[in-house]
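Need residues for this backbone.
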């Protein structure tokens, strides 16, 4: 009796979901048995955040084929818009979970709108020019928030680029470079894992859909795609906006894991965008589950090496170089191709038997 063959896309999806599910089960077992340190527990939500960021950026870099260095800017938009909402409404909804769900929607929609607005002029550029413009966008967002003052009193909301003077009953919500304080700590590992699964579901289904094939056709040969009637602007904007919205969701998760949210360079600056890009490149451009694994490994590695003090970043750099050579050197790629071919032949032999 012949068994139905699973398609390549289905296999990739199963591997991706399987890796995420296996990681979740291992973490839950460690939490239930008390074998996880408090430091590792504190990293669970950031791990989900960075995995979402890596997967979402891979949609732009790997699937669309455009180099973006402004991903931290979309994360910043999602973080501050959702935190602003949560602080303003407080306990008005009566349910922390319902308020957090609304905050996630607000962060995603706001970041997606910014992605659409930025994408309309920016996606006309290519290569290094696109990277420079998206980098500038991220820096502009960060600096505008650092200069922004928002308060609320009996007369309503007040917005200014200089310190505000409010009524006695007033409250500062965004206090310039001091950021936004009082954000409820709604983020948990389970919610972060659910959001990661949602991100994987959206990205994988988009890639394997008609829209995804059109986006990849644009990436492979823009002129050929346009000649067969593919709307270049439409599909590029769609992919870029979805990527920005997913980065906004990561920002929501990040913001609701902190009591005080500030737009510092290490949080939402150039270095954060580069770090996310490193996750994507190291895990494999276009490889969704690879980006997820790279984000987890490169986030955990500095913390696991913290006891080595001066040698910590040296070892981190060496690991980066070794992994990059393993992933992208011609010899390593040829070895993996031969190994894959041997495994395929072995499977065919077993099926014949």
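Answer:
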């Amino acid at each position: 009796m012949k068994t139905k063959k699973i398609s390549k896309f289905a296999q990739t999806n199963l591997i991706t979901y399987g890796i995420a599910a296996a990681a979740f089960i291992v973490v839950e077992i460690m939490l239930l048995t008390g074998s996880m340190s408090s430091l590792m527990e504190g990293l669970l939500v950031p791990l989900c955040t960075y995995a979402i960021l890596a997967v979402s950026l891979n949609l732009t870099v790997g699937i669309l084929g455009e180099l973006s260095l402004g991903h931290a800017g979309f994360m910043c938009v999602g973080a501050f818009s959702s935190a602003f909402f949560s602080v303003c409404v407080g306990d008005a909804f009566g349910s922390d979970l319902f308020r957090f769900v609304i905050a996630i929607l607000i962060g995603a929609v706001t970041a997606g709108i910014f992605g659409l607005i930025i994408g309309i002029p920016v996606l006309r550029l290519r290569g290094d020019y696109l990277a420079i413009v998206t980098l500038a966008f991220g820096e502009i967002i960060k600096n505008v928030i650092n200069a922004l003052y928002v308060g609320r009193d009996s007369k309503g909301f007040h917005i200014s680029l200089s310190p505000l003077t409010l009524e006695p009953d007033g409250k500062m919500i965004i206090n310039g470079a001091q950021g936004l304080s009082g954000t409820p700590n709604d983020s948990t590992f389970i919610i972060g894992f659910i959001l990661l699964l949602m991100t994987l579901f959206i990205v994988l289904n988009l890639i394997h859909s008609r829209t995804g094939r059109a986006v990849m056709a644009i990436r492979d040969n823009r002129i050929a795609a346009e000649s067969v009637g593919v709307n270049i602007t439409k599909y590029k904007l769609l992919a870029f906006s979805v990527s920005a919205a997913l980065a906004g969701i990561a920002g929501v998760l990040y913001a609701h894991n902190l009591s005080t949210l500030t737009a510092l360079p290490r949080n939402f600056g150039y270095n954060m965008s580069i770090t996310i890009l490193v996750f994507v490149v190291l895990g494999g451009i276009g490889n969704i589950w690879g980006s997820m694994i790279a984000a987890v490994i490169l986030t955990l590695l500095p913390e696991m090496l913290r006891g080595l003090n001066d040698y910590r970043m040296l070892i981190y750099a060496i690991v980066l170089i070794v992994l990059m050579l393993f992933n992208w050197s011609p010899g390593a790629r040829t070895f993996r191709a031969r190994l894959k071919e041997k495994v395929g032949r072995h499977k065919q032999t077993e099926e014949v038997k």
